[in-house]
Amino acid sequence: MTTVRLPLFPLNSVLFPGLVLPLNVFEERYRAMMRELLKTPEDEPRRFAVVAIRDGHEVAPTAPGMPDPTALPQRGPTAGFGTDPVKAFHKVGCIADAATIRERTDGSFEVLATGTTRVKLLSVEASGPFLTAELEPLEEEPGDEAAPLAEGVLRSFRQYQKRLAGARERSLATGADLPDEPGVVSYLVAAAMMLDTPAKQRLLQAPDTASRLRDELKLLRSETAIIRNLPSLPASELTRGPMSLN
Q1: pLDDT at 137 over 90
Q2: Phi, psi of 168 (to 5 degrees)
Q3: DSSP of 139-152
Q4: For residue 210, how many other CB atoms are within 10 A of its CB?
């Protein structure tokens, strides 16, 4: 089994291969991570792993809170993730390649990364200024009938987009060709659908592309039917954005 150890960036969202991830990095543990990544030569990938948080907080509390208003907030790389952080995270994540890391005058960072490869989380190390993890890369198997499933998912996704545009009372942007490679389709649709983190996580860790596409087909039909029967969607759902506040 081939493994790799990388810096670990837990988020309240799921990153898929091929998808762009903008980050606004202001916590010291993640600033330290970005400073370390900047030591990597520009012609080499600046990689870190993103995992979705199962139980914990993306941003650690910075002031005393409830129920004890005198309790001091946690500090350090595990703040908000408990005494055994590996239990706080989902077990399948995605490697991110940081194409841009810009330091601001206040010491925070603006980061633009892209998901590359799915990985399985094996262990978490918290002895340094930020979390690192031992990870096992996961192969993406096509599965049975991935190509025809991708065609069906694309048709259903276009209907979903139309219904969603109608619920938002805005026109649907056209002119952009959708991909037809099954693996790319499965990740693009998984990222674009309005699903909660557990649902997206299930799609990320699907055993193969065909299984992911089958699940997406069911979800698209269900979500499209829901949108069709609702007079409007909650504004909070329609304005959810991909930007992480770290």
Answers
A1: yes
A2: -85, -10
A3: -----TTHHHHHHH
A4: 21
For residue 87, CA distances in Å to 10, 45, 54, 55, 90 come to 12, 28, 8, 8, 8
User: What percent of the chain is helix, strand and coil (3-state, nearest 5)?
Assistant: 35, 25, 45
- Indicate the pLDDT class of residue 241, thresholds 50, 70 and 90: very low
Give the pair of three-digit tokens for residue 197. Answer: 């983190």
Question: Could you report the per-residue pLDDT of 188-216, keeping only the tens digit for each?
Answer: 999 999 899 999 999 999 999 999 999 99
Per domain, the residue ranges of the chain are: 4-137, 146-229
Residue 59: which of 13, 85, 27, 106 has the closest Cα? Answer: 27
Query: Is the pTM here over 0.85, yes or no?
Result: no
Residue 129 and residue 112 in contact, taking contact as beta carbons nearer than 8 Å = no
DSSP per position, 27-96: SHHHHHHHHHHTTS-TTS--EEEEEEBSSS-SS---S--SS-TTPPPP-STTTTS-SSGGGGB-SEEEEE
CATH class of 4-137: mainly beta
> Domain 146-229 has what CATH class?
mainly alpha
User: What is the C-alpha to C-alpha distance for residues 130 and 132, in angstroms, rounded to an integer?
Assistant: 7
Contact call for residues 37 and 101 (beta carbons, < 8 A)? yes
Contact 33, 9 (CB under 8 A): yes
Q: Which two tokens stand for residue 34?
A: 């970005």
